[in-house]
């Protein structure tokens, strides 16, 4: 339809004002690095450092959650960040390992190989490769809008449930136990069974870490301010909770030799040196087995990072280009696959920290990557005595904030159907795991939509005062006349609601035997499919048989084009079609 | 919403003018038998006889197609017809065995037991029972509208493909071969392989029958009329084709003893006597295996019979009550299950014959049932020498008319998406069988709908002349003013199109920097889900940031209720909401 404002670029989101098709659109770093302003540097450096302080312990913790050795998390925090900085459109998105993707990695890879084996690590690389390929392909094919089929309620229900599953899965490590668990009830069951085997010292360190993390994040700010510490420093310190607990936990275990005396599980030796070059093995069976998860991760991680990226970008009048984001995240995952990492995405909390710490461009992420690189080069020996329970504590505190009851209550008040799809997703994830949960949620949302549209809202309208406005006679003070009935159908006409349409209109006519003319108002009809056209045809005949003439008013251009081409307009008569309801009523002597 | 004309009864179709809730609504025979008029009798008797003449051979032929002994078809043509006459709402629908349901029976039951075994017959009874239960439950639960999810194009593609599969499956019998075949290519492959084994005499009789059937139906009418035969008689004769070929075929085989000399396969001895009382065995595994097919048959057969029933009813100003139809058809299938039959439904061709032969009430069907009963009581010996190839010929001629190219061409011209779902269904049925074909078709139709709505039509509108009508500036001669942009979104706002909405509006604003006010016209917005609400919230903020004020106009009552309850109206300001676009433009000094 050349004559209409089609969202051509639209669902691709390419709406940066004046963004022509130039290289910078596909390699955004050219844009921002070329115009880099010196005054942005301080903010970028500050943010880069703060995020690195947060990321180093977090990445190791999430790697552990993913069932991988800690260095996998560190490796996944170097090249991926740089590649996203090159190809991503968000200035402040902080890419790297995140909790939910780590969980999805653990469940999917864990189904194919036992944790701790080289096979397991190799499959995680393959998964990252697949996620990267899926995202890049989706971005290049400009089908990023497909992820919209993941509705907000479904994503919310999924996130809350996943957070619970993650938290539960970390409880074991927190207590010094090692039990498997992909879905909540299995995990908790195992946990309760083995509770007596919990390691008291490990538990003490873990719980202590949680308390300290919460204290640093929530309560430390106020006293520091009272002592006159500059806000910037306070910001940095309150974000340094993970680092603090890591340092303290490590010192305690090392000082008291608790790994030996109280058998507190520690990270152990991490190979020093830059991320290794790794080439995932393309075993067809493994690819087939991991592809569904790869697609699920692509959707979920894209939704998570694009939503936070949009939120932050809008604060700075910047725009996010959805398909380019897919390419950026895809590149990051390909980077992870080639350098001993595992699937990554834009993390919510770290991105917010990055933004509030003053990041102006992706240079902040590049600085973060550099610091992580230095860490794996020189500081890995320090993690030797880092207790795993501390990392578990970091994960638990991180995911606690993901449990989202607010959305449920809000959605429940707004629309029961959406609330149902949220709850279905939530329960399905808890009971059957993440992939199934997402699919069940999407299916529920789609079915409820069809159900809704299958029962369209249909209103008899009358004239509002002396205006040319016609509204629902039951909602507004209107004037009507007996012979002419004007009916507005508030739904596109397509197969699920064809029968409802036919029956309602015939019922309305039957209820008003004096009716001689029926004006069908198409302002709410955005499309008419072949099934509905067939019903309109028979409706026209049935009404004529009942001595009622059918008229059309306010039908939209695109809809009229089709009806005309199908010959329907000629069959009912061109003089039965009116641009506005008012015109129709006037020519029928009813206004 | 008490304040609106909701299609409450609607999708149940209970719109017979003045139909209160009385027993006759649930047992329609009370309605029509009570008010039976003597002058209707002639028509009913005539139609009853004509349909019986057609049904006896057809029912045996379809039973054979279903892999059952011929009497199963006859049994399925007695009690089911009477039960439908009691519970059905159509005056002229002719219930009994039909080709497609017979095929679905053959493929589903054939997967569980070999044809010709008692097990096979028992499973066919069970299938009929399940279909009956599913239909009655759907009717009582008043969810008949669910079958609407089977769109016209999908049903058309399914029917054409099934007709091809049926025709192919009968070719074997026509040539005197016996080869299995559920999907087209397998059948044809086997056919070609064994073509050399074809029985020449059988083939001659079969092809002769086809030619005769076509001649009687198409060409016999004209000469008879020339010879002054009364139209009524002509009508009866031209419908008697099946009977004629059955008689002739039987006589030839019996006379020349071809079953012995040329080994022409014949029906053989059929037990005389009324349909036996049968009680299906409720084997859980079998139930689990057959239930999907039972549901598919329920949908397909309901769609077929309700569409023909509606078409015929509208000619006589009668109404079909969808859910009561399900109960009627369900009762018929339960009857079939209890009297040695197999799944039945309202047949298209026989119903048309019944109608044109003058049927006024379901008494015609009761007469038909009586005549079929007499046949199984006294005439079965006559079928001893009836060649199977004749029955195959009857099926082939019957299904030939089901291949529906007209719909494809029409739909293709009207809407490519519908055409695609039609073709997908067609191909899927040919390649993977009927159930898969239906599911694939429904899934395609639903996905294409979501795809369509994910890219909504969005138009900038302007004032048409001096009227209060505002239409697409690119389609109509309109007046606009630079500062104020009025945009009409022609789609309900929900998760698949949230991003498209956001990006398009922001792009439009970016393209017109002089814009200070954006009037969002909701005439085409029939619903806003939670995902879309979230986007509207952020859109409001983003626009304000860009110095653009958001206004709402022509938003519908139900939509406004939700937005108000969610507090969105308060956030954008109550004074930003207008009943009509014209009012909005006036208050913004742009009209």
TrEMBL record, chains A, B:
Signal peptide: none annotated. Residues 474-588 form the STAS domain. The chain crosses the membrane at residues 45-65, 71-87, 94-114, 120-145, 201-220, 232-256, 289-313, 325-343, 363-383, 390-412, 424-448. Pfam families: STAS (PF01740), Sulfate_transp (PF00916). Its main location: membrane. It is found in: Membrane. It is a multi-pass membrane protein. Keywords: Membrane, Transmembrane, Transmembrane helix. NCBIfam families: sulP (TIGR00815). This is Sulfate transporter. It comes from Sphaerobacter thermophilus (strain ATCC 49802 / DSM 20745 / KCCM 41009 / NCIMB 13125 / S 6022).
